[in-house]
Specification:
With 136 residues, the chain is mainly beta. It has one helix at 2-16, and strands spanning 40-46, 49-52, 56-57, 60-68, 77-80, 83-86, 95-102, 107-111, 123-128. Helices cover 11% and strands 36% of the residues. The protein has a 5-stranded mixed β-sheet with strand order 3-9-8-5-6, with no helix packed on it. It has a 4-stranded mixed β-sheet with strand order 2-1-4-7, with no helix packed on it.
Amino acid sequence: MRWTVIAPATLMLASACGAVGPAAAPTGRSVVARGPAVSHAEVGLTEWRVGLGASVFAPGPVELHVTNAGSTAHDLVVTGPGVSAATPVLPPGGTFTLRFTAVPGTRLTLLCTVTGHDHLGMRTDAVVAASADAGT
């Protein structure tokens, strides 16, 4: 009888701690790489979410078509090894094409840096494939 109490509690604790191993982001968030590696993607900014149309980028030139679909101003900053790119602050309905060069085999963080938005959930991660033909 005691095991039925301990096992669920152990599972809850393990899931609350986040992913471990190579898929774990430095912050404890994990990225599930789905679909083929892409060099073009759509990004939608809303309250309080960064909606990314792809979670795997091809190494090399990347182009993000960013749209502020929210009702307040947002921006998008992309950081990772060898990458530091940002849109201007976009008004509701504003768009911007963000270009950067992705380094093979790395993890990128995409977030809104408007005060407080990151902490409200406007952050996501993506990975860069190890080679141009990975994921296809």
